[in-house]
Design goal:
The protein is mainly alpha-helical. The chain has a domain at about 105-160. The chain is built from 6 helices and 4 strands; from the N terminus they run ααββαβαααβ. It has helices at about 5-30, 35-40, 85-95, 105-125, 130-150, 155-160, and strands at about 65-70, 70-75, 100-105, 160. A hairpin with a 2-residue loop joins strand 1 and strand 2 (about 70-75). Helix 4 packs antiparallel against helix 5 (about 130-150). The longest helix is centred in the N-terminal third of the chain and has 25 residues, at about 5-30. It is elongated. The two termini are about 60 Å apart.
Length: about 160
């Protein structure tokens, strides 16, 4: 027969909790003894006041402060001298250089397609169409705004493929 340790632990904890509840209830029924009148005015907890302990000033703490110089205020920095304090400097030197390429060909092709579509729409607008002119003008405005949004370096950088 196997004993489930989880179930037994739970049952044990439950029994322990029940006994604690009973003990607390019994303690609550007991009337605490009254203190003598002399001790009634004194606080229950007395804490000693803090005392100043002089120490040697610590080495560089990495703090900034302003200092007056010949040409006005200067910012000074109390840099830690410890080599372990700046581990980031060593790590950057040890990292291997990683070369990547940025490919904007797909974005350039998309922009060229938009330019070609704009030319085609303008050619179709030059031909006498009648009621389709309004629709073509709306399409031209839409393509122009899209071209304006996409034909810049920020868009190219954001949508370039980095490998």
């Amino acid at each position: 027969m196997q004993v489930n340790p989880v179930k037994n632990t739970i049952n044990h904890d439950f029994v322990a909790q029940q006994t604690q509840k009973v003990q607390r209830a019994q303690e609550a029924k007991v009337i605490p003894q009254e203190k003598p009148v002399e001790e009634a005015g004194k606080p229950e907890f007395h804490q000693e006041p803090d005392q100043y302990t002089p120490r040697e000033p610590e080495a560089a703490s990495g703090r900034y402060w302003m200092e007056q110089g010949e040409e006005g205020s200067k910012v000074r920095f109390d840099a830690p001298e410890d080599k372990d304090a700046a581990p980031g400097a060593k790590q950057s030197e040890e990292r291997p250089v990683e070369q990547t390429t940025t490919d904007t060909d797909e974005v350039d092709r998309e922009i060229e397609r938009l330019k070609k579509k704009l030319e085609d729409l303008r050619k179709r607008l030059d031909q006498p169409q009648g009621p389709e002119e309004d629709r073509l003008e709306k399409q031209i405005k839409q393509v122009e705004s899209e071209l304006q949004r996409k034909d810049n370096d920020t868009y190219r950088k954001a949508h370039a493929k980095i490998s």
